[in-house]
Specification:
The complex is a heterodimer of chains A (115) and B (115).
Chain A (H helix, E strand, L loop, with lengths): L2 E5 L2 E5 L4 E8 L4 E8 L5 E7 L5 E3 L5 E5 L4 E6 L8 E9 L7 E3 L3 E6 L1
Parallel strand pairs in A: 2-11
Antiparallel strand pairs in A: 1-3, 3-8, 4-5, 4-9, 6-7, 7-8, 9-10, 9-11
Chain B lengths: L3 E4 L2 E4 L5 E7 L6 E7 L5 E8 L5 E2 L8 E7 L2 E6 L8 E8 L7 E2 L3 E5 L1
Parallel strand pairs in B: 2-11
Antiparallel strand pairs in B: 1-3, 3-8, 4-5, 4-9, 5-6, 7-8, 9-10, 9-11
Classes of the chains: A mainly beta (115), B mainly beta (115).
Chain lengths: 115, 115
């Protein structure tokens, strides 16, 4: 069964500092991995996804994530935090594609950006 | 591209009434749609998966007679909360996926408050 663990339910960074949100996954087959962002009272917006192509994935708003199979990790990073990055971030894993395919979400990490 | 809308964005109803929430994929055909429920400060809980033209598959513990899902076309799915009670108050989010890959695109969510 697939699962996702996000380390740290809350992360605080200063504006301009590096953002690092951690995600580890468990999957019995090569996974698809996603990062989504959720602003208050809104749905989820796809930041980036890994679908077995390049291991370093670049997404929107300057975010990127690196798939490391040996570490079963897919950490999200951004070199310089902006106030508008304050939101909740969800890592998700999906096995295979097509048919009845479920996505499993992590518990989320709330990012606070301090001015 | 890949825009998903939900209507209404917010609804307040009396206990015992039924509420219908619509989820539409605006610029792609959604072969599969998902309905999630999100409690405050928690991750998303998958309620059910629906494929166009077939019955929805409900997750364990989700009452299918209470949460009626219809996926009548490739661009529209509806969730009807029947005989709503205060404990049904929550944030309901839909997502849609086309046949081309594993990525789910999320709607903006519907806040339901049952008085």
């Amino acid at each position: 069964a697939q699962s996702v663990t996000q380390l740290g339910s809350h992360v605080s960074v200063s504006e301009g500092a590096l953002v690092l949100l951690r995600c580890n996954y468990s999957s019995s087959v090569p996974p698809y991995l996603f990062w989504y962002v959720q602003y208050p009272n809104q749905g989820l917006q796809l930041l980036l996804k890994y679908t077995s192509a390049a291991t370093l994935v670049k997404g929107i708003n300057g975010f990127e994530a690196e798939f490391k199979k040996s570490e079963t990790s897919f950490h999200l990073t951004k070199p310089s935090a902006h106030m508008s990055d304050a939101a909740e971030y969800f890592c998700a894993v999906s096995e295979g594609h097509g048919g009845y395919q479920k996505v499993t979400f992590g518990t989320g990490t709330k990012l606070q950006v301090i001015p | 591209g890949a825009v998903v809308s939900q209507h209404p964005s917010r609804v307040i109803c009396k206990s015992g009434t039924s509420v219908k929430i619509e989820c539409r994929s605006l610029d792609f055909q959604a072969t599969t749609m998902f309905w999630y429920r999100q409690f405050p400060k928690q991750s998303l809980m998958l309620m059910a998966t629906s494929n166009e033209g077939s019955k929805a598959t409900y997750e364990q513990g989700v009452e299918k007679d209470k949460f009626l899902i219809n996926h009548a076309s490739l661009t529209l799915s509806t969730l009807t909360v029947t005989s709503a009670h205060p404990e049904d108050s929550s944030f309901y989010i839909c997502s849609a996926r086309d046949s081309g890959g594993p990525t789910q695109y999320f709607g903006p969510g519907t806040r339901l408050l049952v008085l």
